[in-house]
Amino acid sequence: MNTSEITNIISDDCRPFEAIWNARNGISDTIFYSNIVINGILAIPTFVSNLILIIAIWSCNSMRTPSNIIICSLACSDIGVGLLAQPLAVAKTVIEAKASSSFDSFCSIHKRSRVSSVYFCVVSFVCFTAVSLDKYLMVLLHLRYHELVTTRRVIMFLLIVWALAALCILFELCCSSVITMVLFIGAIVCFIVTLTSYVWVYRTVRRHQKAIHDQLHAVATESRDKSLYMTRVRKNTMSMILVYVWFVICYLPFVVVTVVGAVWSGNESAIQSALLCTGTVIFLNSFVNPFLFYWRIKDFRVSMHIIDEEVKFVSVKTAPYVPVIPRPSSSDDKNITVFHRALQANSIC
């Protein structure tokens, strides 16, 4: 393969981005630099907050449940956003904003930014769907849930999800339009499955709680245990519904703008400006997720408190021992000499 053929292949790969490049002149500097600043500031906190969430899960044996393993996978995808997707998005936007930038450099960084963003978004969509199905199975199977839904099986499922997402990205580099349509249909399916699962779980739990309340006086102990279980499932489900609503709120504007841009051949600069801003909102979702988990789920708060106490204990344990030496009175010359020798021996002064 000669040089001209390689150049043609590269130019073919970059051709879909020509419209974005040409529309950059119509985007205001305020939009460019505000997105650069927001993504640049939030990248590190996004990485750190999600890393702390993963540590909170893995530091306590009782926290390593199938449900929390899925949340851990979601946090891993959010870490990828803070570690790769946001820095690449900042670099892409900087190149777009600079008038002296070349199209080749923009194409190169844009492809990397697109691949990383799409990859972690696909994983997030599937993880949220898996969380809803986990709640569905928790209510449906009840006592058999822990027998069938094990940590090992969930980890294997999540590894397959990450691998399939990577495979989709590889195909996306070859046939972008086909994979984009497949991912769009897959996102709709995930949304429908998630919504259906949560509605079913919520209605079923409410029906069970009502039935248990009616039977409470007949079979006190058994009914009370089942009522507590259903109450715990209901609270956990409501917390995850809140997180999912925030997820939809962040993604919906980008989806709407993408659909409008596909069917409307109007002001391309306005479309690209909207895509730039709504893409930043998607990244904001990864930053807020850990705080929603800390706020809504008590187990995470307890785990973080335990970690904080352990860190304080280790800090105190590893601190150098400093003996408390009574300061003698100025009239006692002998005690003053002993006092100064003790200070020198323990390197206090």
UniProtKB/TrEMBL annotation:
GO molecular function: G protein-coupled adenosine receptor activity
CDD domains: 7tm_classA_rhodopsin-like
InterPro entries: GPCR_Rhodpsn, GPCR_Rhodpsn_7TM
Stored Pfam families: 7tm_1
Subcellular location: Cell membrane
Membrane-protein topology: Multi-pass membrane protein
Main location class: membrane
GO terms classed as biological process: G protein-coupled receptor signaling pathway
Keywords: Cell membrane, G-protein coupled receptor, Glycoprotein, Membrane, Receptor, Transducer, Transmembrane, Transmembrane helix
TM helices/strands, residue ranges: 36-58, 115-133, 154-173, 179-201, 241-264, 270-295
GO CC term, one of those recorded: plasma membrane
Domain G-protein coupled receptors family 1 profile per the UniProt entry, residue ranges: 49-293
Keyword Transmembrane annotated: yes
Name of this chain's protein: G-protein coupled receptors family 1 profile domain-containing protein
